[in-house]
Design a protein that fits this description.
Strand order of the largest sheet: 1-2
Helix content: 10-25%
Shape: globular
Distance between the termini: 30 Å
Number of strands: 2
């Protein structure tokens, strides 16, 4: 994800829906957001997770009903 203020495109492929608090964290900390298989993936800063393991929700079609 590339914020538009540093040249990112304003298009669906470069957007992710976040609550106000998470939006601020992404812009003002070392969290990284990227899309993988069309779903957002969040990489925490090293002070939260030294291994910086990506965190994401499972694909909706893979969640048991």
């Amino acid at each position: 994800m590339i914020p538009w203020e540093i040249g990112g495109e304003t298009e669906l492929g470069n957007c992710v829906m976040l609550c106000k608090a998470c939006h601020r964290l992404v812009h003002h900390s070392d969290w990284i957001v990227r899309l993988r298989d069309g779903l957002p993936e969040f990489i925490p800063p090293a002070w939260i997770d030294p291994d910086r393991q990506p965190r994401r929700r499972p694909r909706p079609d893979l969640v048991p009903a």
